């Protein structure tokens, strides 16, 4: 199963954890990233709606890398995706507010993505905890 990981620097021992599988979250951030290449999946349309009409900067959420380091360039990329926790936490607050709102288009797109809302709320709690400690965070994945 594909997995999205959340790490902090420094490592925080009291960090909340994901409460379920993260594959749907990985699919969402991947498709949000791929909208620049014309992705047309419902999760890509959700990302476009959040960016366009809700004016949410998704860049902190789409900053991630593959954990499978095969060459030096992979290691550099994995190191490059460390980011301050505050922008990610702010993005997730806006995303989760939009997902909880009354926009029927959002609700329709979420209907086909069971667990996405819960994993985004998990990620928000994690990012907010890291923000409280002024930590850096990194999103990475394994396929």
Give an account of the 3D structure.
This protein is 51% helix and 13% strand. By secondary structure, the chain is of the alpha+beta class. It has one domain. Strands 1, 2, 3 and 4 form a four-stranded mixed beta sheet that branches. The protein starts with a strand and ends with a strand.
Topology:
Blueprint: E1 3-9, H1 23-34, H2 42-52, E2 64-66, H3 72-80, E3 83-84, H4 85-100, H5 104-111, H6 116-132, E4 136-142
Parallel strand pairs: 2-4
Antiparallel strand pairs: 1-4, 3-4
Helix pairs in contact: 1-2, 2-5, 4-6
Radius of gyration: 15 Å
Helix percent band: 40-55%
Please trace the helix and strand order, writing H or E for each element: EHHEHEHHHE
**Distance between the terminal alpha carbons, to the nearest Å?**
7 Å
Mean pLDDT over all positions: 95
Give the domain tally: 1
Q: Uncertain regions: pLDDT < 50 for 5+ in a row?
A: none
Number of helix segments?
6
Number of strands: 4
How does the helix and strand content classify structurally? alpha+beta
Provide the β-strand percentage band. Answer: 5-15%
Shape: globular
List descriptors:
single chain; 143 residues; alpha+beta; four-stranded mixed β-sheet; 6 helices; 4 strands; 13% strand; globular
């Amino acid at each position: 199963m594909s997995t999205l990981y959340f790490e902090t620097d420094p490592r925080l021992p009291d960090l909340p954890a994901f409460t379920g599988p993260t594959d749907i979250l990985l699919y969402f951030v991947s498709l949000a990233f791929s909208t620049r290449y014309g992705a047309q999946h419902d999760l890509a349309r959700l990302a476009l709606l959040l960016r366009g009409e809700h004016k949410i900067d998704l860049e902190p959420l789409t900053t991630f890398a593959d954990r499978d380091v095969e060459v030096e360039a992979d290691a550099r990329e994995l190191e490059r995706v460390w980011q301050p926790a505050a922008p990610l936490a702010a993005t997730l607050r806006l995303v989760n507010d939009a997902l909880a709102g009354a926009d029927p288009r959002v609700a329709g797109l979420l209907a086909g993505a069971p667990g996405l809302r819960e994993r985004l709320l998990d990620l928000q709690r994690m990012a907010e905890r890291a923000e409280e400690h002024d930590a850096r965070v990194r999103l990475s994945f394994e396929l």
